[in-house]
Design a protein that fits this description.
4% strand, 11 helices, two-stranded antiparallel ribbon, 2 strands, single chain, mainly alpha
Length: 273
């Protein structure tokens, strides 16, 4: 190793390693998955405080909708749409409504500055927060689905499909909710956008499509949660067409990738302002 001479304050020569003359090496950037796990655990601990009110409100809302619709639906197909839509509404309540509010308040309160100083990729922040909030929807969604099946006399045999519907539909809706919160100029507007999105998921997902006007059906097809509702509703058939179920879940997954990418871009945009 080469060395150079430097003068100390006392005037004596000091040997300095040649490597010290170069710029100090930076630590390697944090990897996505360890960072995602760390953010997820932190957000999960934070959101645990509001877990019971969240579960109660989201579940009570969906159960109340099914009770009201019990005297309105006439056919088994309509009952399937009501139960599937009410179950997915629990996910939409958190992914669209609460997540938009959270990121809107985080941006307005300067919380993004804290995350910007951490050595974590932007995608880890968005995915970690979305995953933590979506995790609390699992019990409420299952309770809603079981109650709806019992109320309308539908089979419980394929309830396991919700283990795929919840994360895929949740990813698609979480990306939209996070993007609304990060792009809205004020937290009040983020709250409004989240509530409008949740209301759209409620009305377009719960009401039987056969009773909708054609233009409303087109709007329903543009909503990502619709494909989660359709995937779950198809499993009530005596012989479900699993190819169509997989296709609906594939649409949810594709929209989830796009919406989370948009939310990550929105996070970068908001963090540097």
């Amino acid at each position: 190793m080469s060395a150079v001479s430097a003068q100390s304050p006392s005037g004596s020569a000091v040997s300095v390693p040649g490597a010290a003359r170069g710029a100090a090496e930076l630590a390697p950037p944090a990897r996505l998955w360890p960072s995602l796990a760390a953010v997820y655990r932190a957000q999960l601990s934070r959101a645990r405080v509001a877990r019971m009110p969240l579960l109660f409100v989201a579940t009570f809302q969906s159960v109340g909708i099914m009770i009201m619709m019990r005297g309105v639906v006439d056919t088994r197909g309509e009952a399937q749409s009501v139960v599937a839509g009410s179950s997915v509404v629990v996910v939409a309540f958190v992914a669209l409504n609460l997540l938009a509010q959270y990121f809107g308040q985080l941006r307005a309160g300067g919380g993004l500055d804290h995350y910007a100083t951490l050595p974590v990729p932007p995608a880890a922040v968005v995915l970690g927060a979305a995953g933590a909030y979506a995790s609390f929807t699992v019990p409420g969604t299952l309770v809603t689905a079981v109650f709806g099946c019992v109320l309308f006399g539908l089979p419980l045999g394929n309830l396991w499909i919700l283990l795929a519907v919840i994360p895929l539909a949740g990813a698609a809706l979480s990306g939209l909710g996070a993007a609304c919160g990060l792009l809205a100029p004020r937290p009040e507007l983020a709250t409004l956008l989240g509530q409008l999105g949740m209301s759209a998921a409620l009305l377009l997902g719960v009401l039987p499509p056969d009773r909708m006007p054609e233009i409303i059906r087109l709007a329903r097809d543009l909503l990502p949660s619709t494909y989660g509702v359709e995937a779950y509703a198809r499993t009530f058939a005596a012989r479900p067409d699993w190819a169509f179920v997989a296709g609906d879940l594939g649409v949810c997954a594709a929209v989830g990738v796009v919406s989370l990418a948009v939310a990550t871009w929105a996070y970068r945009r908001a963090a540097v302002r």
